[in-house]
Amino acid sequence: MDLHSDLHKQRIDLVAFLGALCLFLSTVEYLFPKPIPFMRLGLANLPILVSLHLLPFPYLMLLTLVKVAGQGLINGTLASYVFIFSVAGSYSSVLVMYAVSRISGRFLSLVGVSLVGSLTSNAVQVLLSIYFIFGKNAVMIAPLFLGIGTVSGLLIGLIAEGFVERSRWHAKLRRLYAQE
């Protein structure tokens, strides 16, 4: 087996592991009451956030697909507007977090990246709710939605930043993938 295919297999294995972790965290989060229908704290985004500097873009997109499809299956929302909101929010968030993390380098911590991702996801979901479900009345929940998103984005970012700073496992993977 050549080095390229071995690295691909390792990354696919990592996506599978992180995807399972996303689903576990999503299940745990499902136990918490939701302040607003379809509002989530974002625990399932932790594995995506900590893998921003581990996985190339296509693997992050695959991990996001595993996360949103798994959440849809777990929560029973796969054939609903909630799933569409989840897909739109998750992919827009990952796209922005990936871009911001690459552009800012080390000038912006995972806390900032998480905050930008959370606000992007929430803004996209508010816009979808305005245009497709609730109309202009959805603007009334936007401040609460964005406020909760800000707090949860900061908390998820702090957890991710602390993990990345202290984790030997993460540091080992960064060294391994930097050698490619």
From TrEMBL:
Spans through the membrane: 12-32, 44-66, 78-100, 107-134, 140-164
Pfam families cross-referenced by the UniProt entry: Hpre_diP_synt_I
Keywords: Membrane, Transmembrane, Transmembrane helix
Protein name, UniProt field: Heptaprenyl diphosphate synthase
Organism of this sequence: Marispirochaeta aestuarii
